[in-house]
């Protein structure tokens, strides 16, 4: 009997030795051992990207998905960075041309080409100073408080630049039309206070948006887009002032003529 047990044990030993590698391969691995190194690293770092890994592409901004509009704006930005003065002059030409044509169309009177020429001359002469002013605002009044910086830029633009530019615009319109100094001063008094007060409805918001959200090379095209409507208003206001001056001159001429006829009648009467 003991001999049988000894023989059975001798047979089981080689069998166990042969099956042990296969049993080891079939044994299920623990979840800790099966976790890949990257997943383990992510679990330890809380999902943070591994050092040296390239970040994935972020979402594309809306304004970069507008097709031809995006390409046109980007082309303007490249031109503004490469040739800022030439870009400003070309932009001013189209701004003042569209503004005067719109103002004359609103007035409903016959087209005046000389008036368009005067407006273009005034706009082209002011293009570079206008650009330099906004460059000056960009480089100055930059405080630690962003709100204080933008508020100061708005105040400087409204209190210094706007009345100066409006005086130049309306005064130059009168002088180029052949008016004398007295008539030019009257034109300025008739238009600048009204235009300055109305500018508070438009330009503070434009300046805040420009200096808050736009890079420097795109501020000109944004303000230029707004300026088309604003210059249309200024041209219309200038035309209304011209009509009022003409009406006053006609009234004065009529009064003088009536007075002259009255004096002649009195002289002829016996």
Written account of the structure:
The chain is mainly alpha-helical. Helices cover 81% and strands 0% of the residues. The protein is built from 10 helices and no strands. It starts with a helix and ends with a helix. About 3% of the residues have low confidence.
Largest sheet entry: none
- How large a portion of the residues is in β-strands, by DSSP E? under 5%
Q: What is the general shape?
A: elongated
Helical/strand content category: mainly alpha
Rounded to the nearest angstrom, the radius of gyration is: 40 Å
Q: What pattern of helices and strands is seen along the backbone?
A: HHHHHHHHHH
Q: What helical percentage do the residues reach? A: over 70%
Number of helices: 10
**Head-to-tail CA distance between termini:** 178 Å
Regions with pLDDT < 50 over 5+ consecutive residues?
39-47
Number of strands: 0
Mean pLDDT across the residues is: 78
Summarize the structure.
Its main location: membrane. With about 270 residues, this protein is mainly alpha-helical. The chain has helices at about 1-25, 30-35, 35-45, 70-80, 85-105, 115-140, 145-175, 180-200, 205-215, 215-270.
Key traits:
transmembrane helix, Mpv17_PMP22, 10 helices, transmembrane, Protein SYM1, mainly alpha
Structural topology:
Layout: H1 2-26, H2 31-34, H3 37-45, H4 68-82, H5 84-107, H6 113-139, H7 146-176, H8 181-199, H9 203-213, H10 216-268
């Amino acid at each position: 009997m003991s001999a049988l047990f000894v023989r059975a044990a001798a047979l089981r030993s080689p069998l166990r030795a042969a099956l042990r590698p296969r049993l080891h391969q079939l044994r299920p691995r623990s979840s800790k051992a099966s976790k890949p190194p990257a997943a383990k690293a992510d679990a330890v770092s809380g999902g943070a990207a591994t050092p040296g890994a390239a970040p994935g592409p972020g979402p594309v901004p809306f304004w970069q998905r507008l097709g031809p509009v995006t390409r046109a704006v980007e082309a303007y930005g490249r031109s503004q960075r490469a040739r800022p003065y030439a870009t400003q002059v070309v932009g001013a030409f189209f701004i003042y041309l569209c503004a005067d044509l719109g103002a004359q169309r609103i007035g409903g009177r016959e087209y005046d080409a000389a008036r368009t020429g005067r407006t273009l001359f005034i706009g082209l002469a002011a293009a570079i100073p206008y650009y330099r002013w906004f460059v000056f605002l960009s480089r100055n009044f930059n405080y630690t408080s962003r709100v204080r910086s933008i508020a100061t830029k708005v105040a400087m633009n409204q209190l210094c630049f706007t009345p100066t530019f409006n005086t130049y615009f309306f005064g130059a319109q009168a002088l180029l039309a052949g008016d004398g100094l007295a008539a030019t001063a009257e034109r300025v008094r008739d238009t600048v206070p009204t235009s300055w007060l109305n500018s508070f409805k438009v330009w503070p918001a434009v300046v805040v948006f420009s200096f808050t959200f736009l890079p420097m090379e795109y501020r000109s095209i944004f303000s230029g887009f707004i300026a088309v409507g604003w210059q249309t208003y200024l041209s219309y206001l200038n035309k209304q002032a011209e009509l009022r001056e003409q009406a006053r001159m006609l009234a004065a001429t009529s009064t003088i003529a009536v007075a002259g006829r009255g004096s002649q009648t009195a002289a002829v009467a016996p």
